[in-house]
Amino acid sequence: MAAQTEESDCAREQTKAEQDVDQVRQRSARDQQRLDSGAITSPKDLENLQHEIASLAKRQGDLEDIVLDVMERRESAQERVAELTERVASVQSKIDDATARRDAAFEEIDGEVASVTKEREVISAAVPADLLRLYDKLREQQGGIGAAKLYQRTCQGCRQELAITELSEIRSAAPDTVVRCENCRRILVRTAESGL
Fold first, then answer.
1. Bias category Basic and acidic residues: which stretches (predicted)?
2. 137-159 burial: b if 16+ Cβ within 10 Å, else e
3. How far apart are CA 25 and CA 195, in angstroms?
4. Which of 1, 58, 60, 93 is deepest in the core (most CB within 10 A)?
């Protein structure tokens, strides 16, 4: 934006400088025409007119130098605008690509969520209502994890190794008994790797 503003400011400045040059050029041409016409006969008026024409020529040269300087600055500003526009387009392309990848990932995640939700509905239908309520309550209290695997005498929820007395109680409990970790209170899931 700043580069575009600089370029448009230079364009306005160039237009004004070129108009100033044209005005001086036209005035100089009129004075030269008066001088060439022979209508002025007074030597003093002729001298003043020649002096004004010389002064206008110097002024025109100075103004043309200003126009050249402004043109150079404008050209530099245009190059900067072109470079920045190209960089913006490149960044926008990267943003568009990242957005497309993000949207695709969201779609994939939404599909997985729908699939897992269906699986959960099927499994939860087979789980007793009171156990499901306990699980949901624990899950809410424990940051989303209501049950943890008992792996090699360690609760995978809190990563604490269970005491020997707890392990004895779990070992002697019936396979369908709900057992819980004494440390984090999560439901423990027993497997062949539990270390019982």
1. 9-34
2. ebeeebeeebbbebbebbbbbee
3. 102
4. 60
3-state secondary structure of 148: strand
Would you say 126 and 166 are in contact if contact means Cβ atoms under 8 Å apart?
no
Mean pLDDT, the chain, rounded, equals: 87
Model pLDDT, residue 71: 86
CB 183 within 8 Å of CB 143:
no
pLDDT digits (tens, 9 = 90+) for 149-169: 999 889 999 998 988 888 888
Q: Tell me the C-alpha to C-alpha distance, in Å, between residue 72 and each of 47, 77, 176.
A: 38, 9, 87
User: Which residues share a beta bridge with 190?
Assistant: 150
Report the C-alpha gap between 196 and 190 in whole angstroms: 9
**Number of other residues whose CB lies within 10 A of the CB of residue 5:** 11
Domain spans of the chain? 2-106, 129-190
